Task: inverse folding
């Protein structure tokens, strides 16, 4: 009887460990996302098709990126045009992650892409509007 309890305990521990390994080995890629499988931070493979996938448990990690069209709306900026008048300009940007590996290598996270987009949009906005005069319509 004592041997039966030990056997049941060992079997329960084996089942729990196997269950943890199985849940860590399987992952689902949704149809609205793409995934990058990393092993110790190094990219191993890019998954663009939805479905159930397998990875090495506890060795590989999965980073998911949205493959839909994404929006970025920074706060309004005050810009001085060439005739020294001030404008408050509201901008927005739409982007899509087409290559998850390149995205991971360059900006890594959505916070990183927002910082880069903010700098690019702000610089372009100031360059373009800084060359323009604010023309007022003539009163009748």
Result:
């Amino acid at each position: 009887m004592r041997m039966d309890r030990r056997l049941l305990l060992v079997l329960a521990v084996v089942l729990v460990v196997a269950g943890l390994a199985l849940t860590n080995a399987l992952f689902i890629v949704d149809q609205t996302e793409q995934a990058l499988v990393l092993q110790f931070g190094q990219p191993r493979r890019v998954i663009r098709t939805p479905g159930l996938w397998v990875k090495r448990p506890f060795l590989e990690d999965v980073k998911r990126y949205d493959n839909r069209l994404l929006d970025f709306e920074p706060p309004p900026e005050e810009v001085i045009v060439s005739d020294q008048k001030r404008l408050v300009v509201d901008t927005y940007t739409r982007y899509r992650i087409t290559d998850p590996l390149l995205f991971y290598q360059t900006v890594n996270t959505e916070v990183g892409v927002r910082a880069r987009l903010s700098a690019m949009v702000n610089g372009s906005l100031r360059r373009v509007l800084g060359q323009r005069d604010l023309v007022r319509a003539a009163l009748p």
Notes: Helices lie at 2-25, 100-106, 110-129. The mean pLDDT is 86.
